[in-house]
Specification:
By secondary structure, this protein is mostly helical. It has 7 helices and no strands.
Length: about 160
C-alpha cells in the first residue's frame, strides 16, 4: 500500500537517523547473489498466456494463477519456525492433491518450490520440518479425503 513502509525500511531509516551503519556480512551478500543467480536461470512459468477453450487447460490456468497469488502473499510476510513449517506442509499437500488436475506437473512443482523458498527467505527461525513428518501429516489428511470422497467433490464443485 502506498505510504506504508515495511519493517525493513523502518529499521534502515532508524539506523540512518542514529548514524549507525549496517553492512551485510560477506556470507549474507554471497547468499543473496547466489539466490539472484538461481532466480535468473530458473525456468519461468508462464502464468498468463493463450489458452485452449477446454476444461483441462482452464483448470490448469486457474491453479497456476492461484499458486502465483499464494507465492505473492508469502513473499509479503515474515515467518517464524511454525509458520514456515506450516507452509512446508501446505505446499506438500497441494502437490499431492493437485497432481491429478494438471497435465504437466513441472509448472506446479516450480511454483510450489518458489512458495517454499520464499517462505524460507522470509523466516526468522528457519528450522525445516523433516520430510517423514510432513508425509505422515499429509497422508493422514489424504486418508480423511479418501474416506469421504463427497467432501472433496463438494468443496470443488461450482454451483452456478
Amino acid at each position: 500500500k502506498y505510504g506504508q513502509r515495511s519493517d525493513t525500511s523502518r529499521r534502515e531509516s532508524r539506523a540512518a537517523e542514529s548514524g549507525a551503519r549496517h553492512r551485510p556480512s560477506r556470507v549474507g551478500r554471497t547468499r543473496g547473489f547466489e539466490k539472484e543467480i538461481e532466480r535468473i536461470f530458473a525456468k519461468k512459468v508462464e502464468i498468463f498466456g493463450p489458452l485452449d477453450f477446454n476444461r483441462s487447460t482452464i483448470l490448469c490456468a486457474i491453479i497456476k494463477i492461484s499458486l502465483k497469488a499464494f507465492y505473492e502473499c508469502i513473499r509479503l510476510r515474515t515467518f517464524g519456525r511454525n509458520g514456515y513449517q506450516q507452509v512446508q506442509v501446505d505446499t506438500h499437500f497441494l502437490r499431492l492433491m493437485l497432481r491429478g488436475f494438471v497435465h504437466d506437473e513441472r509448472p506446479l512443482e516450480t511454483l510450489l518450490d518458489e512458495v517454499v523458498n520464499s517462505a524460507a527467505d522470509r523466516c526468522l527461525d528457519l528450522v525445516p520440518m523433516e520430510n517423514t513428518i510432513i508425509e505422515k501429516i499429509c497422508d493422514t489428511k489424504r486418508a480423511k479425503f479418501a474416506s469421504d470422497p463427497g467432501r472433496l467433490q463438494q468443496s470443488t464443485s461450482m454451483n452456478v
